[in-house]
């Protein structure tokens, strides 16, 4: 496989994608919790159905920022394409083996065979007409032609949550091989534990002049010094 980490697969868009995914997931989690509480239900059917909204929310958020989408068969739903990589957001219920469960769906498995259609500069290059305007344009075209027909990597975003808490958001490059899903470069991009740590701010007191700049110290650094 070409990429072994999400950062490699997403390239220059990695930081933006990370922040946007966290924003989308946290917003959807809050909405799902509100709906679950309003329903006053003892069961997780309503909360668990957010997987469809997660797919739509991710698709819309990245589309608003100019990224394309890819339609998966036979389910028909679309997922964002970032740096020629598919971003697939799923919620992982407690006790579920994400590797085994992901491969149980024909639509999810089809994501491993998605091929990128190159966005050519009109038909001019194909027809042998217009020349490339500059070296950058020519390089981009060559990469698109090279990528044509190539299978896109899949960056799988795994949301671990219950109505009581959004525990973590992880991602990894997912590979389908010999009927099984293999995860590479798995890492957490957000966790409740990290969010709870917060920061401590130490500002020097003063009664005249200009105050010193505040010193920001992470709570976990304080703990390690004790």
Task: Name the features.
alpha+beta; two-stranded antiparallel sheet; six-stranded mixed β-sheet; disordered C terminus
What does the secondary structure layout of this molecule look like, with pairings?
Layout: H1 6-10, H2 14-39, H3 45-48, H4 50-64, E1 68-71, E2 78-82, E3 85-92, H5 98-102, H6 106-110, H7 124-127, H8 135-147, E4 154-162, E5 165-177, E6 180-191, H9 192-197, E7 199-202, E8 215-218, H10 219-225
Parallel strand pairs: 3-4
Antiparallel strand pairs: 1-2, 2-3, 4-5, 5-6, 7-8
User: Helix proportion of residues, in percent?
Assistant: 25-40%
How would a textbook summarize the main sheet?
6 strands, mixed
DSSP strand count? 8
Low-confidence stretches: 120-129, 199-226
| Biggest β-sheet: strands ordered side by side in the sheet | 1-2-3-4-5-6
Chain-averaged pLDDT: 77
Radius of gyration: 22 Å
Q: Order of SSEs, N→C?
A: HHHHEEEHHHHEEEHEEH
Count helical runs: 10
Shape: globular
Class based on secondary structure composition and strand pairing: alpha+beta
Give the N-to-C terminal Cα separation.
45 Å
Tell me the β content. 25-35%
Account of the 3D structure:
There is one protein chain. This protein is α+β, with helices and mostly antiparallel strands. The termini are far apart. It is built from ten helices and eight strands. Residues 120-129 and 199-226 have low confidence and may be disordered. A hairpin with a 6-residue loop joins β1 (68-71) and β2 (78-82). The strands form two sheets. The chain has a six-stranded mixed sheet. Strands 7-8 form a two-stranded antiparallel sheet. 40% of the residues lie in helices and 26% in strands.
């Amino acid at each position: 496989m070409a990429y072994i980490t999400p950062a490699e697969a997403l390239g220059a868009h990695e930081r933006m994608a990370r922040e946007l995914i966290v924003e989308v997931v946290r917003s959807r989690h809050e909405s799902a919790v509100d709906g679950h509480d309003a329903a006053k239900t003892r069961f997780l059917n309503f909360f668990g159905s957010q997987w469809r909204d997660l797919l739509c929310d991710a698709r819309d958020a990245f589309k608003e920022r100019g990224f394309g989408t890819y339609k998966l068969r036979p389910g028909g739903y679309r997922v964002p394409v970032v740096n020629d990589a598919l971003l697939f957001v799923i919620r992982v219920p407690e006790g579920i083996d994400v590797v085994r469960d992901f491969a149980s769906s024909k639509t999810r498995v089809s994501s491993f065979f998605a091929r990128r259609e190159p966005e050519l500069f009109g038909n001019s290059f194909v027809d042998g007409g217009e020349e490339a305007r500059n070296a950058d344009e020519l390089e981009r075209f060559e990469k698109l032609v090279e990528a044509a027909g190539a299978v896109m990597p899949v960056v799988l975003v795994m949301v671990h949550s219950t109505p009581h808490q959004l525990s973590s958001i992880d991602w990894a490059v997912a590979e389908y091989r010999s009927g099984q899903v293999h995860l590479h470069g798995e890492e957490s991009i957000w966790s409740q534990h990290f969010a709870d740590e917060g920061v401590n701010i130490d500002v020097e007191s003063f009664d005249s002049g200009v105050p010193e700049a505040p010193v920001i110290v992470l709570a976990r650094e304080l703990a390690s010094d004790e």
